[in-house]
């Protein structure tokens, strides 16, 4: 009865955990150099707001090849590789998550996995074969054609660059006579809108999309609050922004914004399309929350006048 009561207590404790993770490999034995696919399934309670793995280029002695969220449910695929043979231990994989109405990050772990890696099989009694010399063939005009095309393209690119530099100098000389000052928040909102129109993640350029999104927000912080955000890590930026009252109103959004971007850029995390859209909406919300009060009251015609002035210069 005491053992049964202990098991019941353990079951109740496990049931109270808002996140439960389970890791499973496709097989127990692999050859050196094979891809090792580990599937991680996750069960979350309704109180959990967001969850993502916290991994970088390696997990224990395994090299991380790919990290992918395979469906809309909280489920991930880890593709690993290992160059040593023998018994191998894959340590628990950490996941960071947030619960609703709480800005403190929490961590959950998967179960560990034991795997066996074997070397390549070969026959020590087999015949030793000589290395065959490569065959040579005479050069034809078609062999020279790629070099000729490359030279022509380089010449065309050089001429185009010369024309571009000349036009750019003329445009710079014209703009130097008129100085147009654009508030940092309007510059950031315009940059975000142009980034949306580029449709980077729709073309598979996910990492570039998150890099450009965070760079726009970092540059906005520099111009709005005079901090060197472009040279700081995400954690250093959050420390600086914690002293700004306007930032506290969107503190949770800023944490989520930088966390997802760092996972994509440094941990090879593959978000779903809804995550891409959410990242852009978070960027808009962060910038708009820090618009000066006098700018919120300004008439919308100000931006149109600025655009008309720029068009007149052009």
The oligomeric state is: single chain
Radius of gyration: 28 Å
Can you tell me the overall shape? flat
Poorly predicted regions: 1-14, 297-314
With strands numbered from the N-terminus, the spatial order across the biggest sheet is 1-3-7-6-5
Tally of extended strands? 11
Secondary structure category: alpha+beta
Task: Report the major sheet.
Answer: 5 strands, antiparallel
Average of per-residue pLDDT values: 82
The ordered H/E elements are HEEEEEEEEEEEHHHHHHHHH
* Helix-residue proportion: 40-55%
In total, the number of domains comes to: 2
Ends apart, CA distance between termini: 86 Å
Q: Approximately what portion of the residues adopt beta-strand conformation? A: 15-25%
**Total of helices:** 10
Describe what you observe in this structure:
The protein is α+β, with helices and mostly antiparallel strands and 314 residues long. It folds into two domains: 102 residues, Macroglobulin (MG2) domain (Immunoglobulin-like, Sandwich); 130 residues, no CATH class. The protein is 47% helix and 20% strand. It contains ten helices and eleven strands. It has a five-stranded antiparallel β-sheet, with no helix packed on it. The protein has a three-stranded mixed β-sheet with strand order 2-11-8, with no helix packed on it. A three-stranded antiparallel β-sheet has the order 4-9-10, with no helix packed on it. A hairpin with a 5-residue loop joins strand 6 and strand 7. The chain is flat. The termini are far apart. The N terminus and C terminus are likely disordered.
